[in-house]
């Protein structure tokens, strides 16, 4: 098996040095972090449609989670290495014979730091053992499809874990090595495991099942043609995983039952310079031994599984490629998509993702709505499944649930008459319908949208008996009087002993947008009844916006109140929730500008992003209360980026960079994993206190990049563009963007005479923007040999335009390989737009065969447009 991959971005991260974009080096493949194996406190999280895997900072596997059962079905899975070594002092002859000293080995451990490679598809650990032995361990779960792509998942998209082993003897002498694989079989299932040995599975395997649930079966085995299992055992003795002085052969005994540890032994003889490869494979089935055996047999070709997984990630990451002069933002966009792909899973109730993939089976409506919004740019079919899941479970009143359990289908609304779930559902549905252009689906989802919109209108205080006449302002009002999730109408709904009810500014702003966008969908459908819906929704939206700006806008600060609570108390706290009236178009330009500026102040801002509450607030708490009263939630930082784009593009860039850069800055200290979007961060120490991979953060980053950086927004029947280039940016690009069943691409530039956009479709714009339309995106036909340069290429009859942008920090030479893009015998006029000179520079006329290999020099952050025109 050839598992060698050369990534296009390999990030060297020293444990003592913060990550910096200049450490990107040239390579090919998918983006990869390279760092010392002493630099991680916790390892990567990997997932496919049926399972979720977490790893430790040592490289060991921590747990395997079954999405079908909603629980961890194994604990730690580890590999250890031993070499020949004799005890020099024995405890008597009887003791020597009893413990098999003549066959004893000693555990071999690395004598110096190795390295981790964190790749979208796998985690790889490279290290050296004493005696010139090189070890490479590759951990991955196979992924070849998404739960929304196929009605029947492949055998590979099951609960399967691979630990691939590659051992090379770099010595001049032969070496004997004993490799042990260990698996804690129980996970969080009942502690009543029993196991048998099956020599017919792979190169030998243990089959373990729960006695109380005999259909819950794990198989832990060895695959690979170069080895054979030499010993096996079940026991309760975990010390053998870390015993260093006397490692004994396994006893070929599976009599131990209960909370058992399974062990397999592989003996390896290596000649000088020889390499041996094999793998430990763990599979789980909830449908009995026959099914588990089927899964294991399908997984024995570990090379094919590895290559298919890498190929799937390569293919799945291609949509919505945003390219900018900032390499860190470019990397963040790719990793946002990686994180989204990892959490998409299939459950007994259907495709979804949960709010904590390693522990929970709760599918939360607000998280699903934000996820669907971002996922429309990556995998719209998965977004559709999320929307349908909540439409199916909508209350008859129109209320959207808080969550449902993906395993049991238990449904919960937390007793709230209104929170953010219902308006966010409408907004996500509208976004999906507009980006896909699918009118059949619009007709399908509209009844749920309609019920939700009318329900929002019914929750205005004018219709609620709980609100006295003198305080009926026409605002949407939460009437709950509980605490935490039963009394907080906000995304911050789990603050202990806290209530946020009444006319909450966040909820009202979301309801304004939801009603406006429900009206858009009604207008698109065009039937008389729907036109009447549209009129009512529009009127209600504008009345609600006016009520907000009359009653919820503080006349002293010109910032929004947090709420007017059920008792009429005005809560003036300024929090990051001020962003919602900006994001959803309620705040006018002056108020929006003031909010963006206020939240950019030092009491809110940290090097890792924006705090939820001001540092000088009496309520500030940086590390308790889930960080919701002073911690840093990366998703809020990206909401800020989205909101700030129109007013301060430079703040947008700063916000996008801050939280993503943080993940790779001293991950051992900060409890992060480079490339993985963690949940929330201590507002003072900036240590991650939440999940190592939070499912709801990545889509917000992608949304901010597409809507903020690229300036794309959706209107009823058009795609609107307003590229928001900061003052020091000269270009931005987008390709393979899904829209109405097709893909579009463009490259936007700042030129002496204004903004120009080169692309495959005409976009609506509100400002002067000269557009140049091309028939095809031919980017894959052209190769750049500098990883800090990005390109998009277009073609018209008789003309090819190659747009090259620099993401480097100094002037660099960028080689281009055009291959057969130009016809060899035809002659072409070459013209180049030089962003440093702000001018087109005419070139020579040459034959296509002489233009297959080119090179251009570009300044830091600059771009070149290279135009080839056929000559008669």
Model description:
- It is a single chain.
- With 872 residues, the protein is an alpha+beta fold.
- Helix content is 25%, strand content 29%.
- It is built from 16 helices and 46 strands.
- An 11-stranded mixed β-sheet has the order 2-1-3-10-11-12-13-20-17-16-15. The chain has a 6-stranded antiparallel β-sheet with strand order 38-40-41-46-43-44, with no helix packed on it.
- A hairpin with a 2-residue loop joins strand 40 (789-796) and strand 41.
- The longest helix has 25 residues, at 528-552.
- The model is unreliable at 1-28 and 88-101 (pLDDT under 50).
What would a concise description of this structure say?
The protein is an alpha+beta fold. Helix content is 25%, strand content 29%. A hairpin with a 2-residue loop joins strand 40 and strand 41.
Rough outline: globular
Radius of gyration: 29 Å
**Treating each run of at least 4 consecutive H or I residues as one helix, how many helices?**
16
Structural class of the helix and strand makeup?
alpha+beta
Q: Which blocks of ≥5 consecutive residues have pLDDT under 50?
A: 1-28, 88-101
End-to-end gap: 52 Å
**Amount of helix:** 10-25%
| Strand order across the largest sheet | 2-1-3-10-11-12-13-20-17-16-15
How large a portion of the residues is in β-strands, by DSSP E?
A: 25-35%
Number of DSSP strand runs:
46
Summed over residues and divided by their number, the pLDDT gives a mean of 91
Main beta-sheet strand count, sense and barrel state: 11 strands, mixed
